[in-house]
Amino acid sequence: MSDEIHELDTRRLLCPMPVIKTQNKVRTLQSGDCLRVISTDPGSLNDIPAWCRINGHEVLETGEQGYEVFVVLRVGEDNGALF
User: Fold this and answer.
1) What is d(CA 75, CA 29) in angstroms, rounded to the nearest whole number?
2) What is the pLDDT of residue 80?
3) Which candidate in 13, 15, 45, 72 is catalytic?
4) Are 16 and 6 in contact (CB under 8 A)?
5) Of residues 20, 24, 26, the one with CA closest to residue 6
6) Is 15 one of the annotated active-site residues of the chain?
7) d(C-alpha 57, C-alpha 68), whole Å
8) Does residue 1 register a pLDDT over 60?
9) Closest listed residue to residue 25, CA positions, set 15, 34, 12, 16
10) Nearest 5 degrees, angle CA 62-CA 64-CA 67?
11) pTM score, two decimals?
């Protein structure tokens, strides 16, 4: 685990692509790593946390900044879980 927060830009992508891109990125990270996902799809505020609950990842923060939304998550033990 590092103090670095990885970032994933899913702007201009619509459901389900932000979740799929998040899943693919999480597979490259280690347990305990943090990832900030930025999206312009407001559904990501519900979809990514739901995916995290199913796959054992912890949501640390969610929010909106103008037309963008973000989700910060901590990778769980099984980062290779399927969608």
Assistant:
1) 7
2) 56
3) 15
4) no
5) 26
6) yes
7) 22
8) no
9) 34
10) 145
11) 0.91
DSSP string, 17-63: HHHHHHHHHHTTSPTT-EEEEEES-TTHHHHHHHHHHHHT-EEEEEE
**Angstrom distance (rounded) from CA 49 to CA 71:** 8
Whose tokens are 């692509």? That residue is 17
Tell me the two tokens of residue 58: 């912890």
Of the chain, the percentage scoring pLDDT greater than 70 comes to 92
Say which residue the tokens 């992508």 belong to: 13
Query: Strands 34-39, 68-74: parallel, antiparallel or unpaired by DSSP?
Result: antiparallel
Residue type (1 letter), 65? Q
DSSP state of 15: T
